[in-house]
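Attaching the record inline, Q. Sequence:
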Amino acid sequence: MAMDMMFWRRRKPDAERTEVPDMSKRGVGRWGENVAARHLEGLGWRIIERNARPCRKDRRCELDIVAFNPDVRQVVFVEVKTHGRHSARADRLWAIDRRKKRNLLRASANWLMRRRWHGNCRFDVIEIYGEMGGGVPPEIDHIENVPLFPRNWRFW
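Structure, as predicted:
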């Protein structure tokens, strides 16, 4: 009987439980996406989908946030990048390389085809600078209408 009692533990009530922030890459990325989603909702945008994976067979094709801007009636694909601090050597958009652009292209084209959206769309990048759980609010750098693709490029 004593052996059974050793494996059973009483769960703490919610008041005693403390939230430990997830400091892994995935946890920090999720925190950055939450900050970006609150920023977009504060602008009056509607969040359509988060962490959308429109490509069934390819797990790399992920759209962080798909939002709708009611002012210009546009679907906006938002890529969120979370950084601990500014870097003097790296300029804006340094984290979006050729591979990431290709995955964004494939994911956004599949999302538009599945949803049968024939209106306008654009790409935004939101860079979050700050520490998760820090006392200082994070700095948000919202870069609108990022030209990730050539000017003459079309989905269909």
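Strands lie at 46-52, 63-69, 74-83, 120-129, 139-143. Confidence is low (pLDDT under 50) at residues 4-11, 16-20.

More tomorrow.
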